[in-house]
Amino acid sequence: MTDDRFRKAEFAAWVGIVGNIALALLKGAIGWFANSKALLADAVHSASDVAGSLAVLVGIRAAKLPPDDDHPYGHGKAEPIAAIIVSVLLMVVGVEIGISSIKAIAHGVAEPPRWPALVALLISIVAKEAMFQYKYRLGNKLNSQALISNAWEHRSDVYSSLAAVVGVGGAMLGQALDLPWFYYLDPVAGLVVSALVLKMGYGLIMESIHNTMDHVLHREDAQELVQAVQRVKGVITVDDLRAREHGHYVIVDVKISVNPRITVMEGHDIAKTVKQHLMDRFVHVSDVFIHVNPYDPGYPYKNNVDSDQDDAPTLLH
């Protein structure tokens, strides 16, 4: 992880930590004062987001560590591992919200929430959507799965707050219309919040597990890498290229063919140029492994190389 990428990702994590602490305290205090089960459940959800943002911060800092003997390819997988932790926490909180709501329904609801609960929920929706947009865009820009996962956690908070708004608003409407059974809309909203949280958590954990495993980029995604290698001076053709995702970055394995009449040193220089070109042009490429083959003019390569080049002592094109 570059220093600039680390600074931006760390700042985003701290935005989530501070923002969620403020929202959790606000919704918790008002939820208690306004007697709203839905708002208290939403406050617990925001409190879990604090732990999630801390996990992201730990993952980002671990990913910044340089390669070592035990981790020769770096620590990039720390981010998707942090994303898995966030997802598990999200599902645990979803279960807790559901249990709390069921208990409230079973014990009965004597009165609806007070109006400050509705105000707190509207503030939460605006704040959470702003956090989602900021982290989601930054996560895509930095190719950080942990940030993207944490952003979707903020979006799940928006959904849960919307459900809570319906519950709180419906319960308050029941008081205005003298319909006491409307009061149950508040804990029922807590159940809806629980279902939304569990659904979101399941999707995130499956995606995070997928991203923890190495997988090769699809042909169309790797085509730009192939074209970049082909344009490097000295490369006759690209025999094979495989790009595998390793956490937030990509490791490239490529086989190139060069003029068989050049020296080993010249072939080595071409390989170094290819590696440097890929790492400079594609910010997500962290390492490149190159195998240099002698070009066989008898093999039916698809390339635009002139047939006269086999007679040249060095390859210049």
UniProtKB/TrEMBL annotation:
Topology in membrane: Multi-pass membrane protein
Superkingdom: Bacteria
Location, primary (coarse class): membrane
Pfam families: Cation_efflux, ZT_dimer
Transmembrane segments: 12-33, 81-102, 158-177, 183-205
UniProt cross-references to InterPro entries, sorted A to Z: Cation_efflux, Cation_efflux_CTD, Cation_efflux_CTD_sf, Cation_efflux_TM, Cation_efflux_TMD_sf, CDF_Transporter
Residue ranges of every copy of the Cation efflux protein transmembrane domain listed in the record: 14-209
PANTHER family, per database record: MITOCHONDRIAL METAL TRANSPORTER 1-RELATED
Stated family: Belongs to the cation diffusion facilitator (CDF) transporter (TC 2.A.4) family.
Listed name of the protein: Cation transporter
Lineage of the species this protein comes from: Bacteria, Bacillati, Bacillota, Bacilli, Bacillales
